[in-house]
């Protein structure tokens, strides 16, 4: 019959203490890491800016291909010991059997936890990528202009995942010329789209079906923007389920109608102006003939405000205005008592 003394485990604290940081993984990330083919995991942090900003200080994030987790340090009221097996010879004799005890080789008074990051990739890239000038499509000269960097450098320093970066890059119709990242202004977006639509109509190209994009041939001779700009717009408008050969494009009907209406509404309402009464007709005039009937205000509910007299004004995020800081205030996602380890241990013993 075993006794309490027989089942005891010797415990000691090593004089040579090591430094440890415990990282608590959310179940979704743990499942990915423990899978048969675990994905690459990236530890990233926003590069500090030399521009005065009210944005929060950079924090570390851990990213998968399409998810971003913010790393937070959480203090604990209890001390956590890191232990390892340690052989013990109670009689200090060579031939005496060894017993196994444990020794504490380090302790942690805080741990790191991962919570879904409340990032705003779209606003972050608006702040980080300079726009082209309205005149002659040259780099814009503002009182403050973001540092010109390549897309790769932006991606490396962006505090969110690659998939979130690509989605925001596409949404802004951003483009790269000789390793320099730029984005068009809303006026340029409207002008390039109008020119593209006119050129394809003249050449008898039906953009409501799959068509072959042949670059500058589709633009007017007097247009002086870089070919990367219309490419960026088509990338923004193409179908998510596109399965066409290289060089061929299929524009998503719903995406196109809504995007054209949003861009045109923002251009018309610059300076807090109201949209003209014939806005729907103007919107239709910027669409392919077969899609004119799709122009309905319901598609733009998120981008305008109704006034008392029935007029509307644009309220969506501007494509030309920056608002330094690409991270939204992180809402607390940690339930009360979440990090009290004695409560966790109590639950496991219940």
Quick overview:
The chain is α+β, with helices and mostly antiparallel strands and 350 residues long. The protein is built from nine helices and twelve strands.
Structure description:
By secondary structure, this protein is an alpha+beta fold. The protein is built from 9 helices and 12 strands. The chain has helices at 27-33, 121-128, 151-157, 162-171, 186-202, 228-237, 253-268, 279-285, 341-349, and strands at 11-13, 22-24, 42-45, 60-63, 68-88, 99-116, 175-177, 180-182, 211-212, 248-249, 304-306, 312-314. The strands form 4 sheets. Strands 1, 2, 3, 4, 5 and 6 form a 6-stranded mixed β-sheet that branches. A two-stranded antiparallel ribbon has the order 7-8. It has a two-stranded antiparallel ribbon with strand order 9-10. Helix 2 crosses helix 4 (162-171) and helix 5 packs across helix 7. It is elongated, with a radius of gyration of 29 Å. Mean pLDDT is 78; it is low at 50-55 and 319-346.
Keyphrases for this structure?
350 residues; alpha+beta; six-stranded mixed sheet; two-stranded antiparallel sheet; 9 helices; 20% strand; elongated
């Amino acid at each position: 019959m075993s006794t309490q003394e027989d089942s005891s485990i010797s415990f000691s604290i090593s004089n040579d203490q090591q430094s440890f940081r415990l990282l608590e993984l959310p179940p979704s990330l743990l499942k990915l890491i423990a899978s048969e083919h675990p994905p690459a995991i990236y530890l990233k942090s926003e590069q500090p800016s030399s521009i005065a900003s009210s944005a929060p200080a950079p924090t570390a994030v851990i990213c998968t291909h399409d998810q971003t987790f913010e790393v937070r340090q959480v203090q604990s009221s209890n001390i956590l010991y890191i232990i390892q097996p340690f052989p013990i010879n109670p009689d200090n004799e060579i031939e005496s059997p060894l017993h196994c005890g444990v020794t504490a080789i380090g302790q942690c008074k805080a741990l790191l936890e991962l919570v879904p990051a409340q990032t705003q990739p779209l606003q972050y890239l608006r702040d980080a990528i300079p726009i082209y000038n309205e005149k002659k499509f040259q780099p814009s000269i503002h009182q403050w202009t973001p540092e010109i960097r390549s897309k790769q450098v932006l991606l490396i320093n962006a505090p969110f995942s690659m998939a979130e970066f690509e989605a925001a890059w596409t949404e802004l119709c951003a483009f790269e010329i000789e390793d320099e990242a730029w984005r068009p202004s809303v006026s340029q977006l409207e002008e390039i789209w109008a020119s593209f639509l006119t050129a394809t109509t003249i050449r008898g190209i039906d953009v409501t079906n799959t068509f072959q994009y042949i670059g500058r041939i589709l633009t007017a001779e007097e247009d002086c923007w870089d070919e990367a700009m219309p490419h960026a717009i088509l990338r923004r408008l193409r179908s998510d389920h596109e399965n066409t050969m290289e060089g061929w494009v299929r524009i998503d009907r719903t995406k196109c109608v809504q995007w054209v209406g949003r861009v045109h509404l923002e251009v018309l309402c610059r300076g807090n102006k109201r949209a003209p009464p014939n806005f729907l007709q103007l919107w239709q005039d910027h669409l392919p003939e077969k899609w004119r009937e799709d122009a309905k205000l319901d598609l733009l509910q998120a981008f305008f405000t109704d006034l008392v007299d029935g007029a509307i004004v644009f309220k969506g995020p501007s494509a030309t205005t920056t608002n330094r800081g690409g991270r939204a205030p992180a809402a607390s996602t940690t339930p009360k008592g979440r990090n009290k380890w004695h409560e966790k241990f109590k639950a496991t013993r219940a």
